[in-house]
Design a protein that fits this description.
Shape: globular
Number of strands: 6
Oligomer: single chain
Helix content: 40-55%
Order of helices and strands: HEHEHHHHHHHEEEEHHH
Length: 330
């Protein structure tokens, strides 16, 4: 089929301008654009008016030397025509509120961590050791401030203490709202039954996974969560007695995949660390005793938890320890 350009236009990024342009076109329209902060809004706006919308992952586009808006638009149109785009999931909004509340909570937690690091950093610059969490204790703050000779530095640290108090209050509010929203979803009960997953992690997993049916296999889900092991091999085939045969060369392990959902990875890593000192401590100890590195043993637990989450969530069943299989290092 010959490629043919029917129309080309530059339009304002407003709902009225976009819809007016789409209504002016004839035939079945297929639209694509890159994932961005406006992608969700744009998808919801366009989807009812066209045959297909593909939100593509810019990281998985073929590399190209020249870059400009017109060049990128033509390249995306050609890749859409040849079915060469990898789509980013959009369309299910049942957990949209949960996702926004989860992002709000995560941002406040990150801000709180930054303030805590600044506090400890300022004390350490003065040669004052401040390991642990006692430096954040409200009752002992005057004792910590008394160790400082510089009045300006005391004022600075006092403001950081006040900032931390405000963030702590906001963090508690955000957590309360997040958990309240999570309880509206029946899947929360399934997720909380799994070792290592409490109310907060269940809410985060539910918010960013959206639905387990997006993933056909547990390998796809582990890859999305950043828990998939990547490998590399070249020269996979050799000629033996005039015939093509596979070589005995083993693939080289190159660590975990680099394109993933960071929030989900942190959730499953935290769940594995909790399970390793709780319900699954015997399994973890067995892995370590057999020679598996502790970090690899935790990865094994995280992958196992992710697999169980996917399976039970699809079935709507609660976790049953009697059905637990023996863990093996990956």
């Amino acid at each position: 089929m010959l490629e043919r350009l029917f129309a080309e236009a530059v339009i304002e990024t407003t709902a009225s301008a976009i819809l007016d342009f789409l209504r002016s076109q004839r035939g079945n329209l297929h639209v694509t654009f890159e994932e961005s902060p406006q992608a969700a809004w744009l998808y919801d706006l366009i989807r009812p008016h066209v045959a297909e919308v593909v939100v593509c992952n810019p990281r998985q586009l073929p590399p190209k030397d020249d870059k400009a808006d017109k060049i990128d638009a033509k390249r995306l149109a050609e890749l859409l025509r040849t079915n060469g785009l990898k789509a980013v999931y959009h369309g299910d909004h049942r957990t949209q509120a949960l996702k926004e509340l989860s992002r709000s909570h995560g941002t406040i937690v990150s801000d709180s961590t930054q303030v805590k690091n600044r506090l400890k950093g300022l004390f350490r610059k003065q040669g004052i050791s401040c390991t642990g969490t006692t430096v954040y204790n409200k009752e002992k703050r005057e004792q910590w401030l008394a160790k400082l000779d510089n009045c300006a530095l005391r004022s600075r640290i006092s403001k950081l203490f006040r900032e931390l108090d405000c963030l702590t209050e906001l963090r508690n509010e955000a957590k309360k709202e997040l958990l309240a929203e999570a309880r509206k979803h029946p899947a929360t009960r399934v997720l909380r039954s799994i070792p290592g997953i409490g109310p907060l992690r269940a809410a985060v997993i539910l918010a960013f996974t959206i639905t387990p049916h997006r993933f056909r296999t547990k390998s796809q889900f582990c890859k999305y969560c950043g828990l998939a092991v990547t490998s590399k091999i070249t020269g996979e085939y050799v000629i033996v007695d005039g015939r093509v045969a596979r070589s005995r060369k083993k693939p080289l392990v190159r660590g975990l995949n680099i394109n993933y959902n960071h929030t989900l990875k942190e959730a499953f890593k935290g769940a594995a660390a909790t399970a390793a000192i709780g319900t699954w401590k015997p399994h973890y100890d067995t892995l370590v005793a057999s020679g598996t590195r502790p970090s690899l043993a935790l990865l094994t637990l995280a992958r196992k938890i992710a697999s169980i989450v996917l399976a039970l969530w699809k079935k709507g069943e609660l976790y049953d320890s009697n059905k637990m299989k023996t863990l093996h290092a990956v």
